[in-house]
Amino acid sequence: MKTKHLVAFVILLLFTIINAMDLNRERHFPDTSKHDAEYRLWNNLKLGRNTTLVMPPHNDTSPITVIIGLHLLLLRDMDIAQQTMTSEAYLQLGWTDSRLQWDPLKYENITTIRVPNHRLWQPDIKLYNSAKAEAMDAMGNVYAMLYSEGDIWWVPPVTLYSTCPMDIKHYPYDVHDCNITFGSWTSNGYHIDLAVREMELNELDSRGGEWEVLSGISKAEATYYECCDEPYPSVTFTLQLRRRSPFYKMTVLFPILASIALILTSLCISPFSRHRITLNVLGLILLVLQLLHFELKLPSVGGSPPIIASFCGWLVIQGTLTTILTVCVVSFLGVKKQDRNPVPSSIKTFVNLWPVQMMGPQGLVQFSFIPFKYNQETEKLDATSNSDAENPFNDPNARNENYEEWLGFFQIVDRIVFEIGRASCRERV
Fold it and tell me: In sequence order, what are the residues at sequence separation of 6 or more whose Cβ sits closer than 8 angstroms to the Cβ of residue 161?
């Protein structure tokens, strides 16, 4: 009886050990059928020099179609001086290689494998408008997706240094269209045809940047050159960029508005007042500082200069001429009666012309909101600020016919200077 129990115990112990060995074998050695199938697939595809260097089968009527897309991630820099744009993106490339097809049923239903990009033939797609020659081949060394139909999808990360002609005429509210153009470097349209995907901007991070992307347009086109009969296809992605201007309102627009206010205020004062010089000088200082800011911020590029810079330049000319005229008038008022020369006949003839008469004190349009009118009290106030006892402002009898004619002439000249400056600014704008 003891022998039977001992035999049963031994049999149970052996059965337990065998089950434990089977569980351990299943745990450490899973089913390798799919792994083996992928290994066989790699061996049968024979990815080597033939599939890397030689183009897939094609002919002139059915070229290899390469699909190009661009997934823009970041707009890094816009260099106005160099006329370049730097951006980060995923370049999407897709084509078909009929040599790399297989039947998924023979390989455990494997429909996709990941292949190093250097083991595949790749179209020589380059950035046509590259701003740096060394950056034309700067594509990330990433794997490509190979499908059982022979379709290949490769999405390398790229840093694009592209040329972008910019017109800063409307600075700081300028809008630019920048192109990113790709194409085959050596193959014509009979060997490689290009198709385009819509540009993807959904992950573009432009928060806090100086430029805002308004839109992105994708198009494919073929170019014919005089030297050749073959078409040369290319794909162009166009970005419309607008400068964000809130910062420039504080650094550009507000100082210019303050300068304009000072100069316009000086124009409301009679050209025979010394206070006009003070306002003009303050406005000129602000304008010159602003022009220096433009010189540092905006490089000398071709095309039209910024309207706002031209406007500031002509305001400087306007303010300078007005200041010089006011200095001449004030200096003339300080000349003694007996030292004043009569108005030349040529000036009288000019003043008596009816278009010029309209600009004078009795014209239809007055130059200043405060027209000139002789005021003894004003001259007394001006005289108190001058320590010279012989100042003619203290002598109301210092006014004579020559005095009145010269004052009328100065006011007409003041009006003409203003009209010339206004017309020049309007032409520039």
Answer: 84, 85, 86, 127, 130, 131, 132, 135
